[in-house]
Amino acid sequence: MFFRTATALRKNIKMATYVAVIGVVKLNDDDRILLLKRNARRRTSPNKWQTPSGFLNEGESAEEAALREVKEETSLDGTILKGGRAFEVLDEWARWVIIPFLISVKSDKVVIDNKEHSEFRWIKVDEVSSFECVKGIEEDFKAVGLKN
User: Fold this and answer.
1) 15-143 adopts what CATH topology?
2) Which residues have CB under 8 Å from 102's CB, separation 6+?
3) Are 65 and 21 spatial neighbours (Cβ–Cβ below 8 Å)?
């Protein structure tokens, strides 16, 4: 399993560590969520599906960062419905400390940033297993109450 507790991480694991926000984007009054496909040129997880995500700027709150990343990656304006419990994911590139948010949007008119993503899909949460996704995406959905 790729999720570890702080206790398990005390072993001498030396790897890059990043803190990222995740925006699980939900279409207002609908049960569909947005997935973005990382383009093939991405250094980490190329061609994998994910929710909008990114890093915090200095002095920026996690909430501000999540809304900014959703806007930058999709052109959609969102409203935070819920913040989730932070968690860690280990993959072949790094340790990721994830701060997830459930974000509602009123429009499904996505305009992706082609430097980051190659396509997008609106899906039902239970369809996510049919996509090749980044590690930890199921935990994103659990953290914001979309999965048990």
Assistant:
1) Nucleoside Triphosphate Pyrophosphohydrolase (3.90.79)
2) 24, 26, 80, 81, 82, 83, 84, 144, 145, 146
3) yes
| Rounded Cα distance, 41 and 143, in Å | 29
Q: What is the DSSP letter of 133?
A: B
DSSP E strands: which ranges in 11-94? 17-27, 32-38, 49-50, 53-55, 78-83, 87-90
| pTM exceeding 0.85 | yes
pLDDT of residue 11: 57
- What is the phi-psi region of residue 47: left when phi exceeds 0, alpha when psi lies from -120 to 50, beta otherwise? left
